[in-house]
## 1
Amino acid sequence: MQDNLNQKDRVYFEVRDYECDIQGIVNNAVYQNYLEHARHQFIKSRGLDFAEITAQGIYLVLIKAELDYIQSMHSGDAFYIQSSIERVSKLKLNFLQKVHRTDNDQLILSAKMTVTSTTKEGKPIVDHLVAS
Amino acid sequence: MQDNLNQKDRVYFEVRDYECDIQGIVNNAVYQNYLEHARHQFIKSRGLDFAEITAQGIYLVLIKAELDYIQSMHSGDAFYIQSSIERVSKLKLNFLQKVHRTDNDQLILSAKMTVTSTTKEGKPIVDHLVAS
Amino acid sequence: MQDNLNQKDRVYFEVRDYECDIQGIVNNAVYQNYLEHARHQFIKSRGLDFAEITAQGIYLVLIKAELDYIQSMHSGDAFYIQSSIERVSKLKLNFLQKVHRTDNDQLILSAKMTVTSTTKEGKPIVDHLVAS
Amino acid sequence: MQDNLNQKDRVYFEVRDYECDIQGIVNNAVYQNYLEHARHQFIKSRGLDFAEITAQGIYLVLIKAELDYIQSMHSGDAFYIQSSIERVSKLKLNFLQKVHRTDNDQLILSAKMTVTSTTKEGKPIVDHLVAS
């Protein structure tokens, strides 16, 4: 249940005009930007900085993305992304991410993003994220 | 088989530096830009201009995206996207899209993008695309 | 003096990882996104919604941009943009925009962005913005 | 005269739909993407790869951008960017860049982009670019 999730795992956003396309709605690709930012904030809240681990040569890479686009968003819309994780294997985990409108909690988009570490050095990171 | 697909349904690209992120590789979200451009070129080759049909009030919207990220790409890499379609229902169709390196045809990314028309006015467009 | 400017004309941001490029710093083009968002928030605080006036056929367009890049920003950096305006002519105005770090107020970027309305219908909007 | 410039310093583009905003025209910030790509292609044609020199720790950074937006571009428009350089000082040079429509050579945007190397190690690069 969403209500059981930690509220600190919500990241709040507001749609900026430059993120909308000729249809006047948030472009499909922009949701992947939002989701990435929410994942990196999630990791940061567990003490891991994405830019830092990248500089250390530990690469977390997306290997599969599944996005269900349920509603469109327009200029100025306020929303939040709730993220949680589940382990898939030693080096692999899923981020389950949901985009909701801030004012009425309506579901905008639901995503399952599978991330892996490309080297064994990533295992402690995956362990740490799943345990926390 | 890829070889049975029409070569004209290939759109050629080259990675630009601003499309790469702090990992030095093409950012995940940018692939959705590439794929959208390839879909719109596909539609255009069937006589439909995305900006024009949008201006007419006929909206084709993405409702589901599934992307398998197989390899990374770096600055300057040349690649092409091959697209084909399959009908799912009256108003819905799948774009099957594959990103390949130009020099050795290696598979970079494979995607199934489900698109629908939000109004009945879109049905002739879906019919036209599937028939052509 | 910056201190004389209205604090409500500050828009606060935080650098997101996808806005950084292979140099590990915010890409030059991204500052124009930030500045546009700050201008649209400025206009909104004066009762004008950019998406709405665009839908009404009143186009405010950028005709000249001058940006001085003074410092770089990295992943996670917090900053704010302070905007003010000055009239240039009947249909034209300058946005004077400064990007500062939130923690120490250091200047990151300074910009003068000249905006005009392409039709006479834009004159009341320019009048309203300058007067308010 | 533009005609005296080397034709090989032209980089050709076509507007992609995702580069257009709610006004239906190419977003202002996107021109900086185009211009950066044209500069990096210019450098590459002189034997310097931007990603490679960055990896070597030699940073070429933009310190000033002046852009005159003369015409708008829409979905599908074909254009080219012509670049030339002039030395400003030991470590600093200007890129003079013009965006023209491909079909009728109309001027879309004119820019002067001042680039510097942040370390002395960049001097041979600036020398090489100006000499070539």
## 2
Amino acid sequence: MVPKLTVLSHFSIETVRLVIGENKLTNMTIIQVGCNLTYSVIKPTNFLFNVAAARTEHQRICEESFQLIPEISFEASSVEDNQVYRLYVEPCDLQLQYFATVDLHPEFYDRSEINETWYSQLPLDVLPYLNPSRYCESDRLSHFALRMFGNVQPGFSRVNAICDWINNNLDYQAGSTGESTSACDVLIERVGVCRDYAHLAIALCRALCIPARYISGYAVALQPPDFHGFFEAYLGSRWYLFDATRMAPVEGFVRIGTGRDAADASFATIIGEATLTYMAVWAEQTTPNQISNESLRQSAVSTNQ
Amino acid sequence: MVPKLTVLSHFSIETVRLVIGENKLTNMTIIQVGCNLTYSVIKPTNFLFNVAAARTEHQRICEESFQLIPEISFEASSVEDNQVYRLYVEPCDLQLQYFATVDLHPEFYDRSEINETWYSQLPLDVLPYLNPSRYCESDRLSHFALRMFGNVQPGFSRVNAICDWINNNLDYQAGSTGESTSACDVLIERVGVCRDYAHLAIALCRALCIPARYISGYAVALQPPDFHGFFEAYLGSRWYLFDATRMAPVEGFVRIGTGRDAADASFATIIGEATLTYMAVWAEQTTPNQISNESLRQSAVSTNQ
Amino acid sequence: MVPKLTVLSHFSIETVRLVIGENKLTNMTIIQVGCNLTYSVIKPTNFLFNVAAARTEHQRICEESFQLIPEISFEASSVEDNQVYRLYVEPCDLQLQYFATVDLHPEFYDRSEINETWYSQLPLDVLPYLNPSRYCESDRLSHFALRMFGNVQPGFSRVNAICDWINNNLDYQAGSTGESTSACDVLIERVGVCRDYAHLAIALCRALCIPARYISGYAVALQPPDFHGFFEAYLGSRWYLFDATRMAPVEGFVRIGTGRDAADASFATIIGEATLTYMAVWAEQTTPNQISNESLRQSAVSTNQ
Amino acid sequence: MVPKLTVLSHFSIETVRLVIGENKLTNMTIIQVGCNLTYSVIKPTNFLFNVAAARTEHQRICEESFQLIPEISFEASSVEDNQVYRLYVEPCDLQLQYFATVDLHPEFYDRSEINETWYSQLPLDVLPYLNPSRYCESDRLSHFALRMFGNVQPGFSRVNAICDWINNNLDYQAGSTGESTSACDVLIERVGVCRDYAHLAIALCRALCIPARYISGYAVALQPPDFHGFFEAYLGSRWYLFDATRMAPVEGFVRIGTGRDAADASFATIIGEATLTYMAVWAEQTTPNQISNESLRQSAVSTNQ
């Protein structure tokens, strides 16, 4: 599934873990990400592709390529950190090839020092991530969240406890859920995929007054390779990465989109009629010191303020 | 709230616990039940009242009275064990007074000897109680039920474990739910009243292939006094009584209606427009040896085959 | 898909439309129905098959055969009119062959003379069919039903108007819905299959205080051939057949199961793990005067009191 | 309910309808808006009040006052156009008094010239308003929306047709819905309040690929006076105001909050425990030429680009 990208092999690779200030560590990691998508386009169709690695201060894009076969003109534009591609296609077989080399340097923090932020202290632009959204009906889960996690130590540990609970109480099953499946559905049916795990975690965080949002991305070491859905919770004064599926180390996550829930971070928005006939996704670390679950268990990881 | 019923005071009261066969104990208990309901009838309205104690081999009706003020003609008829009253009322203030003296003799069994019945051995007339119903969407809960209770010792103990779990994970809160609240809603919102507790328990039983059904009734020692909703599970070769609310001893339950869920056992079906303005319900044991939770903890109770 | 059943070819075929009393016509029609089902049984599994034509006063079974390959012992038993087969199977490829020759004689009535029955006049055993059920949440649809059909002429014409509306406002799309799809889901999503059409119609009838129930059956002239789901509404003093899909004439419907909704009338209940790998269903009229949509448009059809 | 605000009486009042360019008219209208809210605060509680008129190029705030009794310190801050007040309160009776004099100048456009915008032409910052949100599950309504409005003339007329349909098919009933009621719920139950009307309209617009968002505000001539919920649809190159309730003229709407749905525009967010015990809301035009439904029927109104 993962195509060879030999053109990238001559990149210099460097990963150094540096101490920055007292509680903050960083890592520089070169990750190659990309995807090949093929669509059978049946009617004239508009596409919005949201597959490019975001440009943030923690993600530097060293090299990047976006190609369409046949060669169709497209509009590349940015919404905040996010690079999207918009195009209009007549019926055809459309192939998209994207790859990027990303210089990722997440920050690492001591979990035990990360507290929740009082509502009165939350930045105003963070507040919308307390609101219920399409797939995260936090308004219905407040009683449940308080019952289950109300007495858990607030802070990083509480969000971690939510992830533990979800991990222990859901079964990961490819194809078990669909486009309209929400956190409440998952809580009833107890099966899902990464996006469902994230939605339930986000909903429970919000129900406890912890801002939380959905991230789509590439994930090193994810098996089988695919686009990944995970989440960020706002604690202390920044957003920390979490993944309730525990399927890949968060420090190897390359952010694509950020939103209220998966409704905001679809890798392909299709207005028209087209069927995905082939998909390959990859994320490979090309540095010697592998991203490992070891560090995941010890540090909190942030790639956003 | 509980009106004095002096006419009943001269009844002889007897409660004897007898050994019948090896594993079967019975109790004879005289219980006085009844209700006063007042409706403000706004438009011409049809009522179906389902408030009378059922006539079963375990419930003998010693005395009974059903009265309406003003005196309106009504039809009293039986559907199987169940006595219902149907009437048509022009706008007025309608008062219903029902009371009965019930000679209740539940059977008591050793819990440890009660097993689940293989699907292939279940009587055909029991099978509909495996089907999902309006308020018990067992079809959506199979994964959850198997995860939570799949490894619990089958039999009485498994249904008991379901009741324990519900009791520990829901908060009883009067007025928290409504007419359209289902088992799945309750599983999300984690608050409810007796009918919600019963619905969730029934749904989980059915999801595990244990037939279960809803019972409405009077309950001795229920505080505050009200109509009660509980359930029966079919184990071994009979229906056993359970109450996930644990608010009153099951051996003091006087059956009114039996059905798939509360949709089948409403104490008043109203076709028209009427508002309940007053309601008093009571169930009082008039025998010396009080029904106690002591015995509840030790025996399984059945009032049906 | 429809196997030749040459053994049946020597049956004498007769269809005569007779006048019985004033408003009542009947038809005698010989219909051959049957199905071939193949399952890949993965784990030890209990099956309950509900594929046999019901034995009613309007459906006489002339000849019938139920066979399993491999030859596995099964229990054949009746619940009221309904013949079911229950069996326990070890992992294997299980083939079921059922066929029957049914002498069907529906009754025909003048639509314009069929009225709704006052709640106070409904037989008690009909009342449960006013209650909401798993797939027919009539409790949520009362406002909608009154708005849409409250001013329609009561009686057969009102149920017919409901069928018209559903037929005009849903799209029939094989595979569009699933096991948990309910009337409310269908009202939102506006696509479905026969069972969804029936569920929505039943829910709307009940919301208008018209008893309604689900029928599974065989249907002459259904394209593509399959088990069919339709419904009965209780009007005047009997149950009348309706089909909101309008895909086949109701007078050619052979009843299998009768229930609150599809939860009660599944053609196969499977406790264990088995996958349907082949299915053929047929219903063929072997009489000269073909069942036609012509008569459907003119008469109400009943096969039940 | 509407307090006299005599201090405002010396403001000069002017309303002039001016021609600006060819198709664009504007109006200058002085509107006095405000609210009095009293809460019984039971536990220490954080409040976020979103009751202030937004500062936009179409809404100039001439005078404004925000007061709390008792005098509690609060933080006033802006998120884009929006002024919010955040405070922390110990148990007490909290009274909020807000009033503002707003110089409102909506733009008026010829409805017949307003078209929908191709997906490929929509500004990127408008795209999130195509996504489903908590109360606007547009993903479930695409089939319905296409069936009902797919053949309606695109543009202003199509959004207007959606409003017409909602207005004709819902009943406005105070108190009929709750905090968790969504567009799909409303489509089933067919009753609601202004926010429900807006949610359904927004969901249907999005399902047709018309960006739509929720507006909370004050509304001149709304009876009974209350906060109002309405919506904007993005057509041509700007946001136009719509109100499916048709309870007040859109040209008299004073914007408070703008969001995906009501989850983003609650007039009071309460973290803690407090009960609203008194509420008065007002919006009064103080200019001679009254805002009238007359003009509403003839022009499209925009207060945002």
